[in-house]
Amino acid sequence: MASVSRRESRAGWLFLLPWIIGFLAFTAGPMLFSLWLSLTHYDMLKPPRFVGLENYREAVRDERVATALWNTAFYTVLHVPSQIVLALALASLMRRAGRAAGFFRTVLYLPVMTPPVALAAMFLLLLNGQNGAINEFLGWFGFTGPNWTTDPAWVKPGLVLMSLWTVGSTAVLYLAALTRVPLERYEAARLDGASPWRQFWHVTLPGISGTVYFTVVVNTIASLQVFTEAYAMFFGARDQQSKEGDAALFYVIHLFQEAFGSLRMGYASALAWGLFVVIAAVTAVQVRLSRRYVHYEGERS
Amino acid sequence: MGGRWRTAVLVPLLLAAGCGGLGADPADDPRALVTMGFGLPDEHATARVAVFRRANPDVDLRITEGAFDEQQFLSAVAAGEPPDVVYADRRKLGGYAARGAVVSLADCVREHGVDLGQFREAALRQVTYGSEVHGLPDFSSVRLLIVNNTAVREAGLDPAAVATSDWAALAGVTDRLARVEGGRPRRIGFDPKVPEFLPLWAKANGVELVGGSGVDVRLDHPKVVEAVRYTADLVAAQGGWASFRAFRDTFDQFGAANQYVTGQLAAMAMDSWYINTLATNSPDVDVTVAPFTDRSGAPLTESGGQAWAIPKGARHPEAACRFLVTMTATDTWVTAATARRDALAGAGRPYGGTFTANRVADQRIFDEVFDPRGNRVLERGVPMVLALQDQAFALPPSPAASELVRAWEGAVNRVLTGGQNAEEAMAQAQREAERALRRVGGR
């Protein structure tokens, strides 16, 4: 008996081996290497020189780190709730679509397939403050739209607006979760005279809280790492710095500039570990809160 | 059978050894010559490469097409597997020379008897570090003013009134030329092209942003601060930066309905290559090409363009040296210019000349090959570009080049967006620049 289980566990390890090798070579290895680099000065041309915690001390004093952290936090606080509210609204609508749900699901998910750089190029045109389609649309209702792409105060809201383009990926998750909420609960609630709002608050939301929790965590991590679209829109052109007075300088963009613009691999590694700690802390808080607000099927609450 | 077994054993071994393929590294081939940052978009590239291939049939030239990618290049150098030749912006290459990522060409130049005197001074300055040349300059552009005659005359002014010598007068002219309706620009009167052209505006006011050895920065000099304030005020008076920039973003710069044709712009400071773009897309547009001047009225311009260099650790430095000497030689340039002219003539289009950093080549190209076919943009613009080429200045290469540019461009942006005044912004830029230089020095 014991030998069978040992043989099984050996086979298990053998099957896991490709993943373990991949993990060690491509994830854990580079992470450890960057941890070591974060304690050095390294410009890729000369060998790394050990400097202890100097990079971390500098990061704490770096004015651009403060700007970048503020921008990133601002974006996250705006992006995550709007993404979730809109996704939930769309999923609720799709739930009522009946037989056409499959069609709408596809249509809603299609934008997620757009390559991020193409998306950025398109939104630079749509968001243009002078003749962009979005301001044109606002103009129909008598609003004068802001300069989304050039006014520092509007750059981040513009990016949040753009990020809603990919709301479909969250919406399909909610749709799946909504279909799993038992219909009897709604019936019971209706019998008790609950309004649609109370039904949503006391039946729907607790029923899908696991999915909401998951999307909050994943979206938060993604927005703390926002890079591609913002970089393509405001930093991409050759030799071009952000013309918007650092309004779109997100943390990872700053990190990237330090690494590949200034060749400061050691400092950039320290910044990367800083972000890792921030994300870990934010996620830990979310896990803590989840114990109070998230219910799983079959769990005693 | 034995062969199949050997393959079966060898393939996983090679893959495990990180070879990532079955052949040996192409760079190890003694006949190979690998380039980076260079492509073959037109005859300027293909005809010159053909000249090299004819003269060096034994060299297996491998052109990795695509624009220069800093990250790709530096990781290749760091990994000890650099290309043999790299092609990049001279401002960048100067910084790499200062950091030791590209090697000195002193021996190469001596062995091949290259006369460095034929290269334009400013272009050479950009690739000369520690009194040794580290790159051979390729194309050369200058910066100047392009004035929309129609728009200026419409405002009741003479195109000659758009001049950078009298700053107060230029502000007045800009006011008259600009059209702002309800806070939204309808026409830009004069675009000073900041932050990109700040080195030019500062020099016009008497100060070079970076001094002799590339480590002496003067970003907070009162004259620089004055230039920043002046240019930012010009923008502020034309609807403010956010609207100004958003309006500029709507221009069809590379199309037939460009800002000169539509009248969305009256005048701007610009790189000289744009004259060719205008000539191709809107040959009938009525423009004046004038020099940018300092405040005493003397023409002033900044040199730009690319250069060739040999990275540290290149496997085939001798063939690489032959390659870059051939690519920048006078005869090669003339061959390429002729091929370009003939190709354009085949399409019924004029040839506006090729502006190189090689003075002798330019002279022959514009004497023997230039073929404007009555295109008035070219007939007016080209002589001005030629006259300015030898008057250009360039900032010296600096080991912290990209940080310095980031510092001053960031500062100008903060002034343009109203986040800081010019003194505060440039003082901060100076601190950032000094810190960057200290860091590089301490490495």
From TrEMBL, chain A:
Gene3D superfamilies: MetI-like. The chain crosses the membrane at residues 12-37, 73-94, 106-127, 158-179, 200-222, 265-285. Its main location: membrane. It is found in: Cell membrane. It holds the Pfam family BPD_transp_1. Residues 69-286 form the ABC transmembrane type-1 domain. SUPFAM superfamilies: MetI-like. Keywords: Cell membrane, Membrane, Transmembrane, Transmembrane helix, Transport. It comes from the Bacteria. The keyword Cell inner membrane does not apply. The keyword Amino-acid biosynthesis does not apply. This is Sugar ABC transporter permease. InterPro entries: ABC_transporter_permease (IPR051393), MetI-like (IPR000515), MetI-like_sf (IPR035906). Belongs to the binding-protein-dependent transport system permease family. GO terms for cellular component: plasma membrane. One of its GO terms (biological process) is transmembrane transport. It is a multi-pass membrane protein.
Automatic annotation (TrEMBL), chain B:
Residues 1-24 form the signal peptide. Pfam families: SBP_bac_8 (PF13416). Keywords: Signal. Coiled coil: none annotated. SUPFAM superfamilies: Periplasmic binding protein-like II (SSF53850). This is Sugar ABC transporter substrate-binding protein. It comes from Saccharothrix coeruleofusca.
